[in-house]
Amino acid sequence: MLNHYWTAARPSQWIKNLFVLAPLVFAQRLDQPRDILLVLATFALFCLLASGIYLINDAIDAPRDRSHPLKRNRPVAAGRIGRIPAVAAGLTSVVAALVLAYFIAPTVSLVLGIYAVQNLLYSALLKSIALIDVVVIAVGFVLRAVSGAVAIDVPFSVWLLMCTFFVALVMGAAKRISEIESLGEATGATRPALARVHPQVLNSLLAAATAATLVSYSLYTVAAETVAKVGGKALVLTTPFVVYGLIRYLQRVYGDADAENPAAILLKDRGMQVVIGGWGAVVLAIIYGFSGDLGGLFE
Fold first, then answer.
1. What is the spatial distance between Cα 179 and Cα 101, in angstroms, rounded to a whole number?
2. Residue ranges of the chain with per-residue pLDDT less than 50
3. Fewer CB within 10 Å of terminal CB in the chain, N or C?
4. pTM of the entire predicted model
Protein backbone atom coordinates (compact mmCIF):
# COMPACT_ATOMS: atom_id res chain seq x y z
CA MET A 1 0.00 0.00 0.00
CA LEU A 2 2.86 2.39 0.78
CA ASN A 3 4.25 1.72 -2.68
CA HIS A 4 0.87 2.66 -4.18
CA TYR A 5 0.83 5.95 -2.27
CA TRP A 6 4.42 6.64 -3.31
CA THR A 7 3.46 6.09 -6.95
CA ALA A 8 0.39 8.31 -6.57
CA ALA A 9 2.59 11.06 -5.10
CA ARG A 10 4.42 11.16 -8.48
CA PRO A 11 7.98 11.79 -7.26
CA SER A 12 9.15 11.96 -10.88
CA GLN A 13 7.24 15.24 -11.13
CA TRP A 14 9.26 16.82 -8.33
CA ILE A 15 11.80 17.90 -10.93
CA LYS A 16 9.40 20.76 -11.71
CA ASN A 17 10.00 22.14 -8.22
CA LEU A 18 13.64 22.84 -9.05
CA PHE A 19 12.38 26.27 -10.13
CA VAL A 20 12.30 27.00 -6.38
CA LEU A 21 16.11 26.99 -6.47
CA ALA A 22 16.42 29.61 -9.21
CA PRO A 23 16.42 32.69 -6.91
CA LEU A 24 19.18 31.11 -4.81
CA VAL A 25 21.40 30.83 -7.88
CA PHE A 26 20.61 34.12 -9.61
CA ALA A 27 20.68 36.14 -6.37
CA GLN A 28 24.24 34.87 -5.78
CA ARG A 29 23.40 33.20 -2.47
CA LEU A 30 25.04 29.82 -3.07
CA ASP A 31 27.74 30.77 -0.60
CA GLN A 32 25.19 31.32 2.19
CA PRO A 33 24.55 28.01 4.07
CA ARG A 34 21.46 29.37 5.83
CA ASP A 35 19.87 30.45 2.56
CA ILE A 36 20.67 27.09 0.98
CA LEU A 37 18.91 25.28 3.83
CA LEU A 38 15.88 27.59 3.61
CA VAL A 39 15.48 27.07 -0.13
CA LEU A 40 15.99 23.31 0.12
CA ALA A 41 13.35 23.18 2.86
CA THR A 42 10.99 25.18 0.64
CA PHE A 43 11.69 22.79 -2.23
CA ALA A 44 10.87 19.80 -0.01
CA LEU A 45 7.63 21.37 1.20
CA PHE A 46 6.62 22.22 -2.37
CA CYS A 47 7.12 18.54 -3.24
CA LEU A 48 4.93 17.52 -0.29
CA LEU A 49 2.28 20.06 -1.28
CA ALA A 50 2.28 19.07 -4.95
CA SER A 51 2.02 15.37 -4.11
CA GLY A 52 -0.96 16.06 -1.87
CA ILE A 53 -2.68 17.94 -4.67
CA TYR A 54 -1.94 15.09 -7.09
CA LEU A 55 -3.71 12.67 -4.74
CA ILE A 56 -6.77 14.91 -4.48
CA ASN A 57 -6.80 15.50 -8.24
CA ASP A 58 -6.56 11.76 -8.94
CA ALA A 59 -9.49 11.10 -6.63
CA ILE A 60 -11.60 13.68 -8.48
CA ASP A 61 -10.51 12.49 -11.94
CA ALA A 62 -10.62 8.74 -11.30
CA PRO A 63 -13.79 8.03 -13.37
CA ARG A 64 -12.39 9.85 -16.42
CA ASP A 65 -8.85 8.58 -15.94
CA ARG A 66 -10.11 5.03 -16.41
CA SER A 67 -10.77 5.92 -20.07
CA HIS A 68 -7.21 7.18 -20.59
CA PRO A 69 -4.62 4.71 -21.95
CA LEU A 70 -1.96 5.82 -19.44
CA LYS A 71 -3.81 7.46 -16.56
CA ARG A 72 -5.99 4.39 -15.98
CA ASN A 73 -2.91 2.74 -14.46
CA ARG A 74 -2.62 5.34 -11.71
CA PRO A 75 -3.24 3.82 -8.26
CA VAL A 76 -6.50 5.68 -7.61
CA ALA A 77 -7.97 5.14 -11.07
CA ALA A 78 -6.95 1.47 -10.96
CA GLY A 79 -8.63 1.02 -7.57
CA ARG A 80 -5.47 0.24 -5.64
CA ILE A 81 -6.15 3.31 -3.48
CA GLY A 82 -9.69 4.32 -2.56
CA ARG A 83 -10.89 7.79 -3.55
CA ILE A 84 -11.71 8.83 0.04
CA PRO A 85 -8.35 7.66 1.48
CA ALA A 86 -6.62 9.48 -1.40
CA VAL A 87 -8.39 12.74 -0.54
CA ALA A 88 -7.61 12.29 3.17
CA ALA A 89 -3.91 11.67 2.47
CA GLY A 90 -3.81 14.56 0.04
CA LEU A 91 -5.38 17.04 2.44
CA THR A 92 -3.04 15.90 5.21
CA SER A 93 -0.03 16.55 2.96
CA VAL A 94 -1.32 19.96 1.90
CA VAL A 95 -2.03 21.13 5.46
CA ALA A 96 1.32 19.80 6.72
CA ALA A 97 3.19 21.63 3.95
CA LEU A 98 1.43 24.93 4.67
CA VAL A 99 1.99 24.70 8.43
CA LEU A 100 5.67 23.80 8.12
CA ALA A 101 6.20 26.52 5.50
CA TYR A 102 5.05 29.11 8.06
CA PHE A 103 8.14 28.33 10.14
CA ILE A 104 10.36 29.21 7.17
CA ALA A 105 8.49 32.47 6.63
CA PRO A 106 4.81 33.47 6.67
CA THR A 107 5.20 34.67 3.08
CA VAL A 108 6.37 31.20 2.00
CA SER A 109 3.25 29.69 3.54
CA LEU A 110 1.18 32.34 1.73
CA VAL A 111 2.72 31.53 -1.67
CA LEU A 112 2.24 27.80 -1.13
CA GLY A 113 -1.33 28.50 -0.02
CA ILE A 114 -2.03 30.43 -3.23
CA TYR A 115 -0.59 27.53 -5.22
CA ALA A 116 -2.77 25.05 -3.33
CA VAL A 117 -5.97 27.07 -3.78
CA GLN A 118 -5.24 27.62 -7.47
CA ASN A 119 -4.67 23.93 -8.12
CA LEU A 120 -7.62 22.74 -6.05
CA LEU A 121 -9.84 25.14 -7.98
CA TYR A 122 -8.34 23.75 -11.14
CA SER A 123 -9.10 20.18 -10.10
CA ALA A 124 -12.67 21.01 -9.13
CA LEU A 125 -13.64 23.58 -11.76
CA LEU A 126 -11.08 25.31 -13.95
CA LYS A 127 -10.04 22.24 -15.91
CA SER A 128 -13.46 22.27 -17.57
CA ILE A 129 -12.65 25.66 -19.16
CA ALA A 130 -10.67 25.33 -22.38
CA LEU A 131 -7.01 26.49 -22.19
CA ILE A 132 -7.34 27.72 -18.60
CA ASP A 133 -5.42 24.63 -17.50
CA VAL A 134 -2.40 25.68 -19.56
CA VAL A 135 -2.34 29.10 -17.90
CA VAL A 136 -2.76 27.54 -14.44
CA ILE A 137 0.26 25.30 -15.09
CA ALA A 138 2.34 28.32 -16.12
CA VAL A 139 1.31 30.39 -13.09
CA GLY A 140 2.22 27.44 -10.87
CA PHE A 141 5.81 27.57 -12.09
CA VAL A 142 5.99 31.29 -11.37
CA LEU A 143 4.77 30.62 -7.83
CA ARG A 144 7.55 28.06 -7.42
CA ALA A 145 10.16 30.68 -8.31
CA VAL A 146 8.50 33.28 -6.08
CA SER A 147 8.51 30.88 -3.12
CA GLY A 148 12.26 30.47 -3.41
CA ALA A 149 12.73 34.23 -3.51
CA VAL A 150 10.58 34.98 -0.45
CA ALA A 151 12.22 32.13 1.49
CA ILE A 152 15.55 33.99 1.41
CA ASP A 153 14.02 37.48 1.18
CA VAL A 154 15.48 38.57 -2.14
CA PRO A 155 13.81 40.56 -4.93
CA PHE A 156 12.95 38.64 -8.05
CA SER A 157 13.52 39.84 -11.61
CA VAL A 158 10.33 40.56 -13.55
CA TRP A 159 12.03 39.36 -16.72
CA LEU A 160 13.06 36.09 -15.09
CA LEU A 161 9.52 35.51 -13.82
CA MET A 162 8.15 36.22 -17.28
CA CYS A 163 10.62 33.77 -18.76
CA THR A 164 9.52 31.17 -16.21
CA PHE A 165 5.88 31.78 -17.14
CA PHE A 166 6.50 31.44 -20.86
CA VAL A 167 8.68 28.34 -20.67
CA ALA A 168 5.97 26.72 -18.53
CA LEU A 169 3.44 27.79 -21.16
CA VAL A 170 5.55 25.96 -23.74
CA MET A 171 5.40 22.76 -21.68
CA GLY A 172 1.69 23.13 -21.02
CA ALA A 173 0.79 23.66 -24.68
CA ALA A 174 3.05 20.78 -25.72
CA LYS A 175 1.39 18.51 -23.17
CA ARG A 176 -2.07 19.26 -24.56
CA ILE A 177 -0.93 18.82 -28.17
CA SER A 178 0.44 15.39 -27.29
CA GLU A 179 -2.78 14.45 -25.51
CA ILE A 180 -4.88 15.27 -28.55
CA GLU A 181 -2.58 13.24 -30.79
CA SER A 182 -2.49 10.22 -28.49
CA LEU A 183 -6.17 10.15 -27.52
CA GLY A 184 -7.73 11.01 -30.86
CA GLU A 185 -11.50 10.59 -30.72
CA ALA A 186 -11.32 9.60 -27.05
CA THR A 187 -10.20 13.11 -26.06
CA GLY A 188 -13.74 14.15 -25.15
CA ALA A 189 -14.14 11.25 -22.71
CA THR A 190 -11.04 12.03 -20.65
CA ARG A 191 -10.72 15.81 -21.07
CA PRO A 192 -13.92 17.38 -22.50
CA ALA A 193 -12.57 20.94 -22.48
CA LEU A 194 -9.61 19.89 -24.64
CA ALA A 195 -11.94 18.39 -27.22
CA ARG A 196 -13.30 21.89 -27.86
CA VAL A 197 -9.88 23.33 -28.69
CA HIS A 198 -8.68 23.28 -32.29
CA PRO A 199 -5.17 21.80 -32.52
CA GLN A 200 -4.02 24.80 -34.56
CA VAL A 201 -4.78 27.08 -31.59
CA LEU A 202 -2.44 25.03 -29.42
CA ASN A 203 0.21 25.01 -32.15
CA SER A 204 -0.01 28.80 -32.38
CA LEU A 205 0.17 29.10 -28.59
CA LEU A 206 3.24 26.87 -28.52
CA ALA A 207 4.97 28.96 -31.19
CA ALA A 208 4.13 32.25 -29.45
CA ALA A 209 5.24 30.99 -26.03
CA THR A 210 8.52 29.72 -27.49
CA ALA A 211 9.25 33.11 -29.04
CA ALA A 212 8.27 34.92 -25.82
CA THR A 213 10.60 32.66 -23.82
CA LEU A 214 13.55 33.56 -26.02
CA VAL A 215 12.78 37.28 -25.91
CA SER A 216 12.20 37.46 -22.15
CA TYR A 217 15.31 35.42 -21.34
CA SER A 218 17.47 37.46 -23.71
CA LEU A 219 16.22 40.70 -22.19
CA TYR A 220 16.88 39.35 -18.70
CA THR A 221 20.53 38.63 -19.53
CA VAL A 222 21.16 42.25 -20.55
CA ALA A 223 18.78 44.03 -18.16
CA ALA A 224 20.38 46.76 -16.07
CA GLU A 225 19.65 44.97 -12.78
CA THR A 226 21.22 41.76 -14.10
CA VAL A 227 24.31 43.53 -15.38
CA ALA A 228 24.73 45.29 -12.03
CA LYS A 229 24.32 42.06 -10.11
CA VAL A 230 26.70 39.82 -12.07
CA GLY A 231 29.14 42.53 -13.09
CA GLY A 232 28.66 42.44 -16.84
CA LYS A 233 26.59 41.17 -19.75
CA ALA A 234 28.28 37.80 -20.06
CA LEU A 235 25.03 35.95 -19.27
CA VAL A 236 24.07 36.60 -22.87
CA LEU A 237 26.47 33.73 -23.66
CA THR A 238 23.90 31.33 -22.21
CA THR A 239 21.25 32.27 -24.80
CA PRO A 240 22.35 29.64 -27.37
CA PHE A 241 21.71 26.91 -24.78
CA VAL A 242 18.16 28.18 -24.32
CA VAL A 243 17.63 28.35 -28.09
CA TYR A 244 18.82 24.81 -28.62
CA GLY A 245 16.92 23.50 -25.59
CA LEU A 246 13.65 24.88 -26.95
CA ILE A 247 14.37 23.50 -30.42
CA ARG A 248 15.18 20.10 -28.94
CA TYR A 249 11.99 20.14 -26.88
CA LEU A 250 9.85 21.06 -29.90
CA GLN A 251 11.52 18.27 -31.86
CA ARG A 252 10.45 15.79 -29.20
CA VAL A 253 6.92 17.22 -29.05
CA TYR A 254 6.39 16.81 -32.78
CA GLY A 255 8.57 13.73 -33.05
CA ASP A 256 8.37 10.34 -31.41
CA ALA A 257 8.26 11.37 -27.74
CA ASP A 258 5.27 11.34 -25.44
CA ALA A 259 5.07 15.00 -24.43
CA GLU A 260 2.11 14.35 -22.13
CA ASN A 261 4.76 14.09 -19.43
CA PRO A 262 7.27 16.96 -19.83
CA ALA A 263 9.23 15.75 -16.80
CA ALA A 264 9.83 12.42 -18.56
CA ILE A 265 11.42 14.19 -21.51
CA LEU A 266 13.79 16.06 -19.21
CA LEU A 267 14.67 12.89 -17.31
CA LYS A 268 15.12 10.57 -20.30
CA ASP A 269 16.25 12.67 -23.25
CA ARG A 270 20.02 12.74 -23.35
CA GLY A 271 20.13 15.85 -25.53
CA MET A 272 17.98 17.80 -23.08
CA GLN A 273 20.14 16.67 -20.18
CA VAL A 274 23.30 17.80 -21.95
CA VAL A 275 21.93 21.23 -22.88
CA ILE A 276 20.48 21.84 -19.39
CA GLY A 277 23.73 20.72 -17.78
CA GLY A 278 25.76 22.92 -20.10
CA TRP A 279 23.49 25.91 -19.48
CA GLY A 280 23.73 25.40 -15.72
CA ALA A 281 27.51 25.11 -15.77
CA VAL A 282 27.96 28.28 -17.83
CA VAL A 283 25.45 30.21 -15.68
CA LEU A 284 27.30 29.24 -12.50
CA ALA A 285 30.67 30.06 -14.02
CA ILE A 286 29.48 33.50 -15.13
CA ILE A 287 27.59 34.47 -11.98
CA TYR A 288 30.22 33.20 -9.58
CA GLY A 289 33.34 33.44 -11.69
CA PHE A 290 34.47 35.43 -14.67
CA SER A 291 31.52 37.65 -15.59
CA GLY A 292 33.45 40.82 -14.90
CA ASP A 293 36.33 39.71 -17.14
CA LEU A 294 33.97 39.19 -20.09
CA GLY A 295 31.63 42.08 -19.45
CA GLY A 296 33.58 44.45 -21.67
CA LEU A 297 33.00 42.29 -24.71
CA PHE A 298 29.27 42.98 -24.67
CA GLU A 299 29.04 46.74 -24.24
1. 34
2. 295
3. C
4. 0.85
